[in-house]
Amino acid sequence: MYGLGIDIGSTATKVAIVDETTALVGSAIHGLGAGTSGADKALAEAFEATGLSWDDIDFSVATGYGRQRFERADKQLSELSCHARGMNQLLPGIRTIIDIGGQDAKALRLTPTGVLDNFVMNEKCAAGTGRFLDVMARVLESDISQLGKLDAQSTEVVEISSTCTVFAESEVISHLAAGLRIPDIVAGIHDSVAKRAAGLVRRLGPVEQPVAMSGGVARNTGVVRALEAELGVSISVPENCQLCGAIGAALYALDRAR
Ligand code: ADP
Hints:
Strand order of the largest sheet: 3-2-1-4-5
Distance between the termini: 8 Å
Oligomer: single chain
Number of strands: 10
Radius of gyration: 18 Å
Strand content: 15-25%
Helix content: 25-40%
Shape: globular
Number of helices: 8
Bound molecules: adenosine-5'-diphosphate
Structural class: alpha/beta
């Protein structure tokens, strides 16, 4: 018996397939999101890796920004429920989740048994999201996957004072022109994202621990470092942090298949 979850985000599409024991048997992450061929490509990659096909799937759940327009799924569910469920599977007992994706950031509070209790989100502004980091990586002529390594080489953080992505981009360009070190600029960029995310978390009230991060931006160790410093807590990142919503969706699908 197989349950399939597909998380069609603004920036990337993630697929997770679980078997009747809830084990993750296949997954794929494709760097194209809603309104693109990302869903087809991610599904093809997950099926190729597992040797399964759509006919082997007993139930499917779509989540994420592009879920409504993906009509092949048996059911659509909000990404909040799916992230909570996925995290509870990956790291049971987590009370606060910080999910930073390509175009939004959310803070979720869970009950001790892993049920979604409250949440706040920023979906209005690119600052504090993966989009901000993608723009900065381009200006720095770096790959998004390298920002964490650069951050680790920082010796003196360069403050990025603009909160607007467009102005912050100009600020980074002027820091580069002034010859400031790239690792120090990168650390300043990460501090800026962390301040935004920490603001969201604080709107939920006192920080309930343990805290974990999900979403693609959790793969950036520099953002995790900056958020830990900003919030003064330790943050766990599951290995499959970007797949968290898709795994939650696959588990809901498995419930229905059963
Ligand atoms: P969404 O669900 O909104 O499409 P994701 O949670 O998939 O977003 O996250 C996408 C973001 O993750 C990208 O905008 C990018 O900034 C970041 N990202 C993706 N891969 C990596 C990586 N290898 N290292 C660091 N950041 C990454």
